[in-house]
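Why does residue order matter? Because the sequence determines the fold. Keep that principle in mind as you read this record.
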Amino acid sequence: MTAPTVADRYPTRRAEQLPAHERPDPVVHPSAGGPLDAAACERFERDGFVVVEALVDRRTVAALLAEVERLATDPAIAASERVVREPDGDDVRSVFDVHRTSPLIASVVASPSMAGLARQLLGSDVYVHQSRVNRKPGFVGKEFSWHSDFETWHAEDGMPAARAVSVSLALTPNYVHNGSLMIVPGSHRTFVPTVGLTPGDHYRSSLRRQQVGVPSPEQLAALVDAAGGEIAVVTGPAGSGVVFDCNAMHGSSGNITPFPRTNLFVVYNSVHNTLVEPFAADARRPEFVASRDFTPVG
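Structure:
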């Protein structure tokens, strides 16, 4: 493994359990403003996420949904690693790097309503660390294990600091019963190291079902207890969205309903937080999972 060029302030993926600790990085950075009002920024600071009622209009949602279905069935894309399938079947679970394969998606990703959220909260220009579409087909869509994205991005991609946010745009209704995002409020303030060394080419299995880099039941229970027993379920109509901190502990259950769930998911990282070598993996993940093109978006 090539040594990272900056200090590791978030050690994880060791053979022994390391204690959880308060993050040394701020949550909201000073900025010139943006789409969120002061109250929304305060909620983000407190909870680690904030829901936005309308990120895009109905016409754009319809166009995006059609584009997503085209990408999911494109033979050239399907033959690449960009398409991830369900762990127990052939249904498409995720399509990665969608902003580079679709001009329509690229325009939405760079829009003030999407990228502007990230610039405001991170207090800087941002670039796209990762983009993907997450699909949960009715009846067969499987769960996503509890995890902190930043733990993975730090360990496997070399992201130095917790200065990134994710924006999830609903392209279909996100109901409480069709596998919507669950977040532990306030968990973003605590970094939870996980046990176990990162296997080689871990992305090949983890994108289908993550088992390394997930908290123990005891760690998760402690976070939920600190949140007063609360787990927030993020719901909303198509066109709504949520922006959440990179270190927020989150997951989702499977979808056993007839209602499919499809979301466009974009990770924006600060241009002052660009990737170095992985902190706890033998090699970098592929570019379609963790971009090293740090060109500011929008």
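The first helix runs from residue 38 to 47.
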